[in-house]
Amino acid sequence: MSRHPVPLPAEHIPPGAADWRTPDVTRWLAAVPGRWAHPLWAFLALVVSMVWEVVTGPVPPCTSAEPCGSDWPGLAVAVVMVLALYWVWRQPRLAVAGLAVTLAALPVDAGLTAFARPSALAYLLATAFAVAGLVHRLTLAGRQRALATEAAGPVTRPLPEAARTFRRGRLSFVLAAVFLAVAGFGVWQARGVAEAYEQRAADAAHVTGEVTAVDEDDGVLTVTVEGRTRRIETAFPEDFPVGTRVDLVADGDGAVLVAEPYDAFGWELLVLGGSVAGLAFLANGVTGHLAARRLRRGPLPVLHVLVREDEEDGRTYVFAADDTEGRRPVLCFHSLYAFEDDEEGFDEDGLDEDDLASGDDADLRKIAEILRGGGPTPPLREAVLYGAPYAGAEVAFVARDDEDDPEVAVECSVTAVKPAVPGWRTRGPQPRERTTPRRSADEIAARMTPTAGPRVWRAHGFSRAVGLGLLLVQGGGVWAALDDGPSWSWLWLAPALPWLVTSVATALTWRITADRDGLWVTGAWRVRRVPWEVITSVRHHEDGIRVGRAKDSSVDLSPAGWAWLERRMGREPGAERVADEVRALLHRPDLRPDAEAASDQQGMPVGPPLVVLTVLWGAAVLLLL
To answer: How far apart are CA 596 and CA 190, in angstroms?
Structure first.
């Protein structure tokens, strides 16, 4: 049975505020970018062409006249190049500027003839395609803004007082400072390596020798100097064939090539990563701060609309004022509450502990029921939207939470507005983890019988198959990385290996045990105790099981199978079934076990033993090769 939208008191609707009706909404939705302009296509084109250019582009050889040291201008261009890829998704205007910088830097050494190379020409075409898509998106965003302003009519109102004290961007600024400090530390260390070489070169002897042998596998040159043989390490042995005359800096610690004086690649990589992350957070913080300031600057267009929170991802979806069934969402964004006279109020960082502790217990219980999935579906609510909505905009709105709450709340967006249409990342408030409707707790409970002993769910066949497949990938990756002995190629293991070990251990041996007082959740590294009273939700999420907890982070088991393949084989995904049954116990206490789980029923994490096995495997590879 349909429910009427939660009404907004008339005194909170500005006089003359226009309804945003279906005809106007249809025109607004028609002004969205075409599928060809989706950021994914530009991103892929740029990545492929960039990799092609890096792999096949000419690299100037290292010589005594032009030694290979730290290339700070080139590193700066690399930072902008990586940032431009990110900005294609998040910051179209900055992406256009970043792509222009990288395109201008390409022919610096070779001039326009650089574009005669197929790889450089491909990058030029990819950049042109990306810029065309970005300009298309920006143009249609302006069109959407004009249509929204036209629908709102001449009525404008200042932002509600509570929203005027809402602050954006603080967390981004903090993270930007941290990452930029890391980049600065990397610059300092790289400079230290260069200065140490300069000091060494000033005190050492400068000699010239002839290359008599080259070991390209180990990157070692055999150089004869005045009848004495020296073995010199090099990063580019192909640049020094047999018979080449090379200059050396020699002292008591050995000798190095003047052409390759020092190796600061690790520190330069740290500078690259820190600069990219820091500047990305800085740009996000500045953009959010400026957008919030624009909202507070003067009177804004106002639109009478309907809003609803999505049960799955917490986004606020906006509907036309006459779409009282909530059938067609128009746009979406994440939002947080704003409060009057609260300069330190809410931000994209989330709720403070004091805010939670001082909240009304009844309201918290009601929110927890909604999060559990067993409570009522969030209702449609009448709202007044402040600001002209368009792709990338910031807005605020006023609405009541529900019919039982007379208070009117002000919420501000903390992510940019996105149209809720096919071709964009979001398509409307609907569950995205399942292709079949989620069964109610009562329906699941009807198939279950109360038990005295604890209920145990453990890794099933598909989950173990996923774990074994990832274990083979892990073993092969370790073999490939260690195949050539110690080298910089080991760096790729740093982010990949911890994730692989965690995923393998989880997929092979995850376990959930339900007893009288709560759940024992066994993951890769530990067994967690989650009492029934703090659980807010249990659901299948991204091929895993997520147990939400009040005032704390969720407990995740992932991967716990492969839902896509299980459905293709005509089977119900095992992790989905487990999540449904645990959720039924959450909402039906009469089905919970009467006994406590013994220690042998709680499971044992296998992450630590798997780390030991991985180390032993790596040692065996090094010894055998």
So the answer is: 58
Burial of residue 466 (CB within 10 Å: 0-12, 13-18, 19+) is: buried
Containing H/E element for 301? strand 300-309
Dihedral sign, CA of 410, 414, 290, 349?
positive
CA dist 364 → 361, 403, 583, 602 (Å): 5, 16, 19, 31
Taking Cα atoms as reference points, which of 522, 589, 528, 583 lies closest to residue 553? 528
pLDDT-derived band at 315, boundaries 50, 70, 90: confident
Longest dimension (CA), the chain: 98
Q: Evaluate whether 382 touches 7 at the Cβ level (below 8 Å).
A: yes
Q: Which CATH superfamily is domain 186-266 in?
A: Nucleic acid-binding proteins (2.40.50.140)
d(CA 497, CA 244): 41
Contact indicator for 598, 516 with CB cutoff of 8 Å:
no
| pLDDT tens-digit readout, 454-511 | 889 998 888 888 889 888 888 877 777 666 555 555 555 666 788 888 999 999 999 9
Distance CA 84, CA 102 (A): 9
DSSP 21: -
Q: Which of 474, 431, 475, 464 is nearest to 560 (CA)?
A: 464
With tokens 């408030």, the residue in question is 429
Q: CA 361, CA 364: separation in Å to the nearest integer?
A: 5
By residue count, the chain amounts to: 625
The confidence band for 279, taking pLDDT boundaries of 50, 70 and 90, is very high
3-state SS assignment for residue 625? coil
Domain ranges of the chain: 10-17+298-419, 186-266, 442-624
195-204 CB contacts, 8 Å cutoff, 24+ apart: 196/262, 197/256, 197/261, 197/262, 200/249, 200/251, 200/253, 201/249, 201/258, 201/261, 203/251, 204/249, 204/250, 204/251
Residue-wise DSSP of 507-540: HHH-EEEE-SSEEEEE-SS-EEEEEGGGEEEEEE
CB 459 within 8 A of CB 560: yes
How does DSSP assign 241-274, residue by residue?
-TT-EEEEEEETTEEEESSS----HHHHHHHHHH
Rounded to two decimals, the pTM is 0.61
The DSSP line for 479-509 is HHHHTTSSSGGGGGHHHHHHHHHHHHHHHHH
Give the integer Cα–Cα distance in Å for 455 and 577.
14
Chain centroid to CA 461: 30
d(CA 408, CA 144): 28
Question: Six-digit token pair at 569?
Answer: 């084989």
First to last CA, the chain: 70
**Burial (CB count within 10 angstroms: exposed 0-12, middle 13-18, buried 19+), residue 485:** exposed
Up-side HSE of residue 587: CA atoms within 13 Å toward CB?
25
Q: Between β-strands 254-257 and 18-19, what pairing exists: parallel, antiparallel or unpaired?
A: unpaired
2: buried, middle or exposed (CB in 10 Å: 19+, 13-18, 0-12)?
exposed
Burial of 296 (0-12, 13-18, 19+ CB in 10 A): middle
For the stretch 326-347, pLDDT in tens is 888 999 998 888 765 544 443 4
Q: How many angstroms separate the CA atoms of 521 and 527, rounded?
A: 6
